Fold:
Amino acid sequence: MYYVNQEQIDLRLSFVPTLLQACTELREAWPEDVLGEAKEEPLLLYFAQERTLHLAIETVTDVGSLLIDAFMMRDASSYEDIIDILGDEGVFDQDTAATLKELVLLRRPLTQDYTAVRHKGLHPMIGRLPAALEAFAEAVPAFIRKEML
Structure:
């Protein structure tokens, strides 16, 4: 019998709508001129997008680690490996896996190499993240239900 820490998984998945809202607000707040080129961009917006990306990474990897432990999947050797394992186990489709892997690859620059992060425009992941997070938030409970049968 598996022990699924459903409370912790649900808590983290319940944070996904907040991340979706942050992505929407960042896209709407990002300054652009009539030609679509960025104008002067406030530093606070850069920090907001970096924190949004960081929280999305932590949400996905926390849930992933809980699933790996619950269903006794192979041990992950890195954050990227968490996504690979979940993709290999069929938790989510390959498109979602590819986007989430690209997301978790941002962890090191955001958390360790933050002094070298170049601030230039809205990060492309902010536009792609909502679809991946929505797919993730739907796929995880479906996977748990399927595995618990």
Summary: The first helix runs from residue 6 to 13.
